[in-house]
Amino acid sequence: MKINQVSVFLENKPGQLRAACAEATKAGINIVTLSLADTEQFGILRLIVQDWEKARTVFERAGFVARVTEVLAIEVSDEPGGLSRILEIVDQAGLNIEYMYAFTEKRGGKAALVFRFENPDTAEQVLKANGVNVLRDVELFRHAKTASWLEGMGWRDREKSAGEKLVVVVPSFW
C-alpha cells in the first residue's frame, strides 16, 4: 500500500531545518521518519507523518514549498543480503528507484525502508507478487507509537541490561 510522504523544500542556509521542525512541533505533528538531501541551492526534507494533509498545510502556511509524494514502505530482512534480495526483484522487473531511506525503528528481525519508485503502482504489484511485505501506513504508525511508548516506559534499557523478553499487546484502536 502506498504511503503519502511530505517533501518540504528548504533554502540551503542555517536555521531552515530548525524552522521547519519548529512549525511541525507547534502544530503537534510527530515525525515518524525523515530524510534530508541537499543541493547547492536548496534542501529537500522528506517526512513520513501520520497526518500528511495537516503537515502540508502547516508548512505551506509557514511559507515553505511542500509537496506530497506516494512512496512504498517495504519490510526487509535485517541481515546480510536482505536489501540485495529486494533489489534483485526490482531490477528483474525493470523498476526505477528514484530514492530510498530507512525507517528509524526495526520491526522484529526486519527493517523498514521507504522507496520512491518511478511507478509506485507497478512496484507495489511486483513486490507483493514476489512475497515482499509492503507495509500499510497504519502498520508503520502503530509500530512507531508502540516503540515510543516502550521507550518512555524504560523498556528498551531494561531489555538490554537484563536480557528480558518483552511481549507487547497493542490495543486495537492503535
Explain this structure to me?
- The protein is an alpha+beta fold.
- The protein has a single domain, classed as VC0802-like.
- The protein contains six helices and seven strands.
- It has helices at 16-26, 52-61, 82-92, 120-129, 137-152, 155-162; strands at 2-11, 31-38, 42-49, 65-77, 97-102, 110-117, 134-135.
- Strands 1, 2, 3, 4, 5, 6 and 7 form a seven-stranded antiparallel β-sheet that branches.
- The longest helix has 16 residues, at 137-152.
- The chain is elongated.
- Mean pLDDT is 80; it is low at 149-174.
Features:
174 residues; 7-stranded antiparallel β-sheet; VC0802-like; alpha+beta
Strand content: 25-35%
CATH class: Alpha Beta
Q: Residue share in helices?
A: 25-40%
Mean pLDDT level: 80
Count of runs of 4 or more consecutive helical residues? 6
Query: How many extended strands?
Result: 7
Instruction: Give me the CATH superfamily.
Output: VC0802-like
Q: In terms of quaternary structure, what is this?
A: single chain
**Series of H and E elements:** EHEEHEHEEHEHH
Return the structural class: alpha+beta
Q: Termini, distance in Å? A: 18 Å
pLDDT < 50 stretches: 149-174
Give the tally of structural domains. Answer: 1
Describe the main β-sheet briefly: 7 strands, antiparallel
User: Globular, elongated, flat, extended or rod-shaped: what is the shape?
Assistant: elongated
Radius of gyration: 18 Å
Q: CATH topology, anyone?
A: VC0802-like
CATH-scheme architecture: 2-Layer Sandwich
